[in-house]
Amino acid sequence: MKKTISINLSNQNFSIEEDAYEKLAAYLKSIKNHCGGADTNEVVADIENSMADKLKSSLSPYKEIITLEDIESLIKIMGTIEDFDREVGGSSEVENDEESLPENKTKRKLYRDSDNAVIGGVCSGLGAYFDIDPVLFRIIFFALVLAGGSAFPLYILLWIAMPEAKTAHQKLEMQGQAPTIAAFKNLAKTGKQIQDNWKKRWQKRSTIDKIFSLPLVILNGLFLTIKKVWRILWPICIFCIGIFLTVISLIGLAAISIGALFMLLFNNPIYKFSFIPITELTAVVPYTWLIITGFLSLAIPAILFIIGGLAMIRKKNFLSFAAGSILVAVWMISGIIFSALCLRYAPELKQKFDNYYTTEHVKQVIDLTEIEEIEVYGNRLNIFVSANTNTPPIISGRQIDLSSLEIKREDKKLIITQQKYQPEATCINCHLSTMELVVATSTKLRITARDGADIFDETAPIPEPIIEAENLSDYENSKATISE
Amino acid sequence: MEDEFKKSMENAAAQMRKGVLEFAILLVIAKREIYANEIISRLKNAKLTVVEGTIYPLLSRLKNSELLDYKWEESKSGPPRKYYSLTAKGRQFLKGCEEQWRNLESAITNLKK
Is the pTM of this model over 0.80? Predict the structure, then answer.
């Protein structure tokens, strides 16, 4: 099976196979370029007309398509431009060429001449442009390099600025030749000899040229080596980065998805956050919207990174410009909505936290009548001995924390013990925090802190601590004991 | 060596053909109004080998020097065709050619003796 193209040849419609079309188009173009006179169009039209006539007669209900063989045999009959030259041009060719040479010269264009390059073909390109031996430019560059290296960045700049003459057409432009068939043929002939034939090129150069080219040649060798190594290493680097990026992004995307799903599905009062049932928090905000926009603003970059990573591995771009634009647009919109929602509801959430009955900050006055000694156990308890004598003895902290305290009276002794806390399985961020016991100095008390409780005494600048420790670790736990 | 000889022989033949091609075409057209493909087949029948594509620049040149004229005619199959005919100038030119040809012919026969 082959693809066919529908063409108009001399106002006749033909279905023609793709390769045959290419051949035919190239042939007609070569004739057009070859004739190059005032009546070109007429001649080409005549030839097209004749070809159409012949092609039409070769078709039948059993053969509807023009194939490459048809075109090839047709071209054989019609003759190539070489035949034209021999049969028509002939003796007039020489004088014709002489005549047409000035016409064929067009304005030169500045390209890098990589066929005659030492490094990047800048000098040879300049030489071709100004029609001067490139050795002159090499001497100038060499002198400038010796004079202080200013030529090096200039060379790099020119290298970047001057496009390389890659196609035959560009090479002709570089030499200021009109793109005629003859010029192309000539170029193909000389180009083949020059191409990749360093030694021949080298021998072609004059001695002066060789001497001045030498540093450039050395630089070139260095450059080529770096280029070779880089060419090997670069794909490996890209591949590794691609794999890394893809794997990391996949893990990230999975985590984000599972997280978002969990947050949507487990919106249930038994789950708590800082002792507050999640449902009470989510009731405050447009929860679903927050999750969706939050998910999108995290997942889309992950998806883009995965696609980017895959593109690096497969060396193929999977994302069309349109799809990419849509993804980025969705990402931006969801990001903006998510941020706006966060900013809008953050104060309300904070208020919710502050006012929730278990997490609310409360103060509790302790009755210290007839109490002479206080013993405090637990690392979440800080004791402040206040210089203000009017302060009533107060214990303060979150409701939930205070409720975990056991306060016991034993004769004239008050024992405050922090209960062991068993965290709930369905509670996130549910840890107890510190409480403060504030006692005025006026109350003559003996306070003992144990199990990591700390005492801060405002009144005693440098207290001589009485250490009551059974062993060293105990001492470290209950740093000091102060007696009044 | 043989290749070179073959090449120069071919070249000589091509040069000769080229010299008479214009004359031959004018002769064919002089008989009756005729279109390009028919001209070619008549030339071929007369054993004058010709690269078909070369006919068209030639016809165009002859037309430009007002030796030929043409008119379009519909074809039963394919595109319409250009039917060529000689102009008065063309007829005159052909006469000149015929005279030149006779001269050439006698010159060659003379030389061959």
Answer: no
